[in-house]
Amino acid sequence: MRLFSKDWLGDLMCGFSGYFAKRSCGDAQSIIQGMNAAIRHRGPDDSDFWHDREQGIVLGHQRLAIIDLSPAAKQPMISASNRFVIVFNGEIYNHQELRQQLALDSWRGHSDTETLLAGFDAWGIETTLRKCVGMFALALWDRQGKTLTLARDRLGEKPLYYGWQNGVFLFGSELKALRAHPGFVGEINRDAIALQLRHNYILDPYSIYRGIFKLPPGTWLVIDIGSSNESLKQPSVFWSLRETAELGQRQLFTGSDQEAIAALDDQLRASVALQMVADVPLGAFLSGGIDSSTVVALMQAQSNRSVRTFSIGFNEFAYNEAEYAKTVARHLGTEHTELYVTPQQALDVIPRLPSLYDEPFSDSSQIPTYLVSQMTRQHVTVGLSGDGGDELFGGYNRHISVGPLWRRLNKFPLSLRQGGGSVLSVLPTNVWDRLYGCVAPMLPARLRVAQPGTKVHKLANILGATSGEDIYRRLVSHWGKPCEVVIGAVAIPTTLTSQAAWPSVAELEHRMMALDTVSYLPGDILTKVDRAAMGVSLETRVPFLDHRVVELAWRLPLHMKIRNGEGKWILRQVLYKYVPKELIERPKMGFGVPIDSWLRGPLRDWAESLLEESRLRQEGYFNPAPIRKKWAEHLSRQRNWQYHLWDVLMFQAWLEQQRKA
């Protein structure tokens, strides 16, 4: 017997959950409703489920209505052929174009979910995924083939977890949905803790739990429920960043600078236009930097009314971009809203982080990201962001500096470089900050940087590197030897350590950009934004990650991205068509909060309780000695260990929250 729940308009963003059980594990309706309730923040507009008792498959969905607000867009949704049942999170921006290709006589509604199902019926799964332009995660039950297919978008904008637990196959948008199933075991993966300490996030395909995985971006996975084998196949790839990079660099754009600028402008305008389609209020995050300003400029250029823009500010000068955002907004004529956050407002977010991020996650910019999402949601339901510009166009300092730096360093003996690193490490970061402050007014703009002491210590760390790739790995690592800190952990392979998986492209800069796109972008940036925004029922869209923009970016030669020691050259030229250069040019700032000083001040007691030596020993996950050493050095201002300590603190806070749940 197959059934839908009768709750048509529950008050329960888009997210989904589900499971397949070979044997009964309790009342299916109450189980799936519990899994749905765990992620109700992702979809407050509707809640529903579908159950095939004969096959033991259950699908649940939480809906945030963006396209087609009518009941015709309800999920789980069955295809017109009755073959497929789907739960889907995301947006297919080109679904109207796909409908024209499908040329059906009639449609039940105008949702992209219905379009997806019609595509699967007509073209099959892989072809349909390749045709889609959008962000998505989905679970598709094939009633004919008795198979379950999971799929995730090309760049990893939407999350999807899955795995076997106690004879039950679980899947969902967030780990908390899987944890809500009574069969969930939840053995903590110590190897994943080491990954989090190294990178401040856990790289796919791993999760904090053994046996539970993240589906990598651009892949799909088929589970045959008729098989008695619980081992999982490797996901199939329908789009590869590695192949895109290699093909693009073999087929380089051959036009002039102006032709390249025009091509990028056209492609970005098209992407922004597609992502502005919604049946609910829409706006954009605006920091005043290159990426978000470009997105907002292209939105305003294609809108007949003022675009809603949002930014937050901090009274600490080193962390405040609000004034820059306000200036850009005024020039573009947007309807701008800003909020200056007090330290207490930011501190009040911290207790929510373990639940919000669902597994240990320690990018401290998670705090302002949540605050700007919270403010934005008070005015709109969809927000566009500028994420992805750095990865595509060489925007991070490492993209610009590592190549020239390695070419200089490699001229000196390794022993001499290691000695130099030791010398630079002697002075604490705050002393370097003061020294830099004395000379900064005399330096040209291109040499002015934020947080100079931290950058000097980064330089000290990389002086002992043996290659440009080694410098990159050191720069994207916090704890250099995390397996010495996490008891029982071993190093597990990732994209960053498996050199055979790296794209075969000529320049080190391009290799770093590609690696950032498949690791840091989905694992950190997109995770941070998705959880923060979904936590307040705000949908975010990322125009730079339209795969056609990505493919164009990889056809551009390096000198159109990095030129004269400056990153994102071509993106700047596009932006300057809409915003004067003088409103944009300034040193790059991170989107963060002063965790370093907070740990010595208002967060000190909280941190001390989590880092207490006897507690660490009793819990049994960490070797206390290196952690206590860094904590003492941080408190005494000998070193700034804010990132290393935040990694440990976010695991500790997560562990404490798990025990209370």
Describe what this molecule looks like in 3D.
Helix content is 43%, strand content 14%. It has 661 residues and is an alpha+beta fold. A 7-stranded antiparallel sheet has the order 1-3-4-2-10-9-11. The chain has a 6-stranded antiparallel sheet with strand order 5-6-7-8-12-13, covered by helices on one side. It has a 5-stranded parallel sheet with strand order 16-15-14-17-18, sandwiched between helices. Strand 15 (308-314), helix 10 and strand 16 (335-341) form a beta-alpha-beta unit. Residues 1-13 have low confidence and may be disordered. It has 28 helices and 18 strands. The longest helix has 19 residues, at 257-275. Helix 8 (257-275) packs antiparallel against helix 22, helix 16 packs antiparallel against helix 18 and helix 20 (508-518) packs parallel to helix 21.
Mind sketching the topology for me?
Elements: E1 2-4, E2 15-21, H1 28-38, E3 46-52, E4 57-63, E5 77-78, E6 84-92, H2 95-102, H3 112-123, H4 125-131, E7 134-142, E8 147-152, E9 161-165, E10 168-172, H5 175-179, H6 190-199, E11 213-214, E12 219-224, E13 236-237, H7 241-250, H8 257-275, E14 282-285, H9 290-301, E15 308-314, H10 322-332, E16 335-341, H11 343-347, H12 353-357, H13 366-377, E17 382-384, H14 389-393, H15 397-409, H16 414-426, H17 429-439, H18 452-462, H19 468-475, H20 508-518, H21 520-534, E18 539-541, H22 547-555, H23 569-575, H24 595-600, H25 604-611, H26 613-619, H27 624-635, H28 642-660
Parallel strand pairs: 14-15, 14-17, 15-16, 17-18
Antiparallel strand pairs: 1-3, 2-4, 2-10, 3-4, 5-6, 6-7, 7-8, 8-12, 9-10, 9-11, 12-13
Helix pairs in contact: 2-3, 3-4, 6-28, 7-22, 8-22, 8-23, 9-10, 9-23, 13-21, 15-19, 15-20, 16-18, 17-18, 20-21, 27-28
